[in-house]
Amino acid sequence: MNGEMNGKPTQGMRMQTMLAHYGEETFHGAVVPPVFMNSLFTARSYDEMKGPGNPFRYSRISNPTTDALEKKLAALDNGEAAKVFASGMAAISTALFHYLRQGDHVVCSYPIYGGTYAILSQWMDRYGISCDFVDFRNPDNIRKAVKPNTKLLLTEGYSTMFMDVFDIRAVIAVAREFGLKSIIDNTCATPSTLKPLDWGFDTVMHSLSKYLSGHSDVIGGAIISDSETICKLTEIEVSLIGASLAPFESWLVNRGLRTFGIRMKQHGQSALQVAQLLANHPKVTRVNFPFLPDHEQHALAVSQMSAPTGLLSFELHGGELSVQRFVDALRIFKIGVSWGGFESLVYATAIGWQHEQVRGTEYEARVEGLVRLSVGLEDTEDLLEDLEHALNEA
Ligand SMILES: *Cc1c(COP(=O)(O)O)cnc(C)c1O
């Protein structure tokens, strides 16, 4: 980790220490930096305005509160620079506009986050950009899908519904072999468990709305990459598309980050206990949590990810009716989309999901009985009791 902390380098600083202090200038000794609620910044002279001097002119492009967050996010992913956006989808679409031109082709893993699937399967087509979705669990599929006009490989560190793990060494090997750009959506694994830039990815994207902010009170996104990429992206796509994160939202994410490492430990510990409970329950046919030793992707998962997060799914006997009974019997887990906050949530693919994404694949039969849990920060015992009770009702 490079950079400055009150003038001192942060080299060697561990994650929670960096998150507590890095990238924050002090103003009057304030322990919490202020929110710069400014659309614009004035210059003291004609020459200062004309010259490159002041990095802050207009908050669509940059703002000191946003800048502090960007420094921290770049350090967190061991990247050179970061840019934040009004949502995770704004980050993804801006990155696609940055990397792709008319006639280009993308190879993307599936099942992938719904918004990413929608933008690449239907919408980019308008601009002459095509995409093939392949199963990245087998690296041969990736290699076979590469065409002469392929520019980009896009994947996730850990997928959001079925909790698949993709072999990131293999993805990088294919990218290098064919000279392709590689992007990873690391929202689900998070930089507390996986640092894709260290493995050779060109660019990492995140939704900040999940674990990074952690309090279910903000929507945001981020792109982390080398300085040159972030600089070009800021000059062109950020300026033209303008999906910037507002100062107050940036401040909220920064506040959430101060406890990120501690929250992730607790989410992961509780999720492991939840997974063990589910694995031993007769109504559960399958637990999608690669940190259980008998999961088929366990070896790959532990070779890439340093710890579990709070996100997992499982599959119930008895189809949608059983899923409905289970969901309605829960008391602490609330029914909701999204995840990664302090609160425990439940969602089921039978409630609504992009079924067309998996039509004709082995995943199709699993959609009806799949339940996803975002294990929150409540006391683990309460969560286990809630699940046990609801499973008995299912
Ligand atoms: C939530 C999510 C997104 C989209 O982020 P928003 O902040 O909701 O726009 C993208 N990718 C993944 C994996 C997500 O979970």
Keyword list:
single chain; 394 residues; alpha/beta; seven-stranded mixed beta sheet; 14 helices; binds pyridoxal-5'-phosphate
Describe the fold and architecture:
This protein has 394 residues and is α/β, with parallel strands linked by helices. It has helices spanning 15-21, 46-50, 64-76, 88-99, 114-123, 139-145, 168-178, 196-199, 227-241, 247-257, 260-279, 298-304, 319-329, 380-393, and strands spanning 4-5, 8-9, 81-85, 105-109, 130-134, 150-156, 181-185, 203-207, 221-225, 284-288, 311-316, 334-335, 345-348, 370-374. It has 14 helices and 14 strands. The strands form three sheets. A seven-stranded mixed beta sheet has the order 3-9-8-7-6-4-5, with helices on both faces. The chain has a five-stranded mixed beta sheet with strand order 10-11-14-13-12. It has a two-stranded antiparallel ribbon with strand order 1-2. Strand 6 (150-156), helix 7 and strand 7 (181-185) form a beta-alpha-beta unit. Helix 3 (64-76) runs parallel beside helix 10 (247-257) and helix 4 packs across helix 9 (227-241). It starts with a strand and ends with a helix.
SSE blueprint:
Blueprint: E1 4-5, E2 8-9, H1 15-21, H2 46-50, H3 64-76, E3 81-85, H4 88-99, E4 105-109, H5 114-123, E5 130-134, H6 139-145, E6 150-156, H7 168-178, E7 181-185, H8 196-199, E8 203-207, E9 221-225, H9 227-241, H10 247-257, H11 260-279, E10 284-288, H12 298-304, E11 311-316, H13 319-329, E12 334-335, E13 345-348, E14 370-374, H14 380-393
Helix pairs in contact: 3-10, 4-9, 11-14, 13-14
The protein binds pyridoxal-5'-phosphate.
